[in-house]
Amino acid sequence: MSNPEARTLLADPAPVFAALGDATRLELVSRLNDGQTRSIAQLADGLSLTRQGVTKHLRVLEQAGIVSSSRVGRESHFSYEPKSIDQVRTYLDTVSMQWDEALSRLQKFVDA
Amino acid sequence: MQDYIEKELELKSPVARVWRALTDHEEFGEWFRVKLDGPFVVGGVSTGQITYPGYEHMKWVATVEAMEPEQLFSFRWCPYGGEPDVDYSNDPTTLVEFKLEPSSGGTRLVISESGFDALPDDERRVDALRSNTSGWNEQVKNIAAHVQS
C-alpha cells in the first residue's frame, strides 16, 4: 500500500471481523444496538440456543470489544459498544484511501 | 458493514499495457512503490521491500493466486502486515484481485480487496457460514442497516 504503516497503527480489526462472522452473534448485536442493556435471558429469547450457548457468543463479542458486560445482582447484563464498529469502519476507510492513492499512481504510470 | 473494498478505474491504455503494469514485477513496483525480489509466479510467494518514503523498513509479502493473461491478477496478503520482525504467516489474509476488460476508451480495471472477516482456522465460523443460507454478505448488509440506523 501507499502507506502500509497506517494500517498497522490502527487496532487489529481481525477479531472484530471474526466475531461478527457468525449469524448468532450478528443477531445478538442487532438486538443490542438500540443502546439498551439486556440480560442473557432477554438476549436468548427466541433463539434456538441454550443460555450457555448464548453466553459463549456474548463472551466472544465482549473479547472483541463489540459488547460490554456489567453485573446486576447475580446477573450479567450486556450492552453494545459502537466504538468497535467505528474502528473497523475507520480501518476500511484507510485501506480504501490507500487503494485510491495507489490506483491514481497506476493511472499516471500507464496513461502518461 | 461492508467487509470488502471495490474500486473501478477507466484507463486510456489498452489492456495489454495495463496487464504489464500489473504483472511485470518491476513495473508493479514502480507505481505500487515496492522493490520486489523477483517476478510474480502463480502459487509463489512474492517478497520485497516497500519503497514508499518513510516506510522503507516495511516488508512486502504476498502469495500470487491467479494470473490469467489480460483478465485477472490476484494475490493474498496480510492486510496489516509489514513490520520486519513479525511473522504474519499464520495471520488471516485478504484477497486482492485486479480484473481487466477492454472498454471503448481503453481498459476498465476493477480492483477488490476482500476477506477482512476471514479467520481461516475458526471452525465455528466455517460451520456458521455453511449452515447460514443467507450468508455472510447478507448478514453484513443486515448489520449495516442496524448499526447505521
Main attributes?
heterodimer; A: about 110 residues; alpha+beta; Arc Repressor Mutant, subunit A; about 65% helix; disordered N terminus; B: about 150 residues; seven-stranded antiparallel β-sheet; 4 helices; disordered C terminus
Work out the oligomeric state of the chains in this entry: heterodimer
Biggest interface reads: A-B, 40 and 53 residues
Structural class of chain B: alpha+beta
Give me the side-by-side strand order of the main sheet of chain A.
1-3-2
CATH hierarchy: architecture of the largest domain in chain B: 2-Layer Sandwich
> How many helical stretches of chain A?
6
The tally of beta strands of chain B, per DSSP, is 7
CATH superfamily of chain A: Winged helix-like DNA-binding domain superfamily/Winged helix DNA-binding domain
Give me the secondary-structure topology:
The complex is a heterodimer of chains A (112) and B (149).
Chain A: H1 4-9, H2 14-20, H3 23-32, E1 38-39, H4 40-44, H5 51-63, E2 67-72, E3 75-80, H6 82-111
Chain B: E1 4-11, H1 15-23, H2 25-32, E2 34-36, E3 45-50, E4 59-68, E5 72-77, E6 94-103, E7 106-114, H3 123-131, H4 135-148
Antiparallel strand pairs in B: 1-7, 2-3, 3-4, 4-5, 5-6, 6-7
Helix pairs in contact in B: 1-2
Commentary on this structure:
The complex is a heterodimer of chains A (112) and B (149). Chain A contains six helices and three strands; from the N terminus they run αααβααββα. Chain A has a three-stranded antiparallel sheet. Chain A is α+β, with helices and mostly antiparallel strands. The N terminus of chain A is likely disordered. In chain A, 37% of the residues are buried. In chain A, 63% of the residues lie in helices and 12% in strands. Chain A has a single domain, classed as Winged helix-like DNA-binding domain superfamily/Winged helix DNA-binding domain (Arc Repressor Mutant, subunit A, Orthogonal Bundle), CATH 1.10.10.10. Chain B is α+β, with helices and mostly antiparallel strands. Chain B folds into two domains: 113 residues, START domain (Alpha-D-Glucose-1,6-Bisphosphate, Chain A, domain 4, 2-Layer Sandwich); 31 residues, no CATH class. Chain B has four helices and seven strands; from the N terminus they run βααββββββαα. Chain B has a seven-stranded antiparallel sheet with strand order 1-7-6-5-4-3-2. In chain B, α1 crosses α2. Chains A and B meet through α1, α2, α3 and α6 of A and β1, α1, α2, β7 and α3 of B.
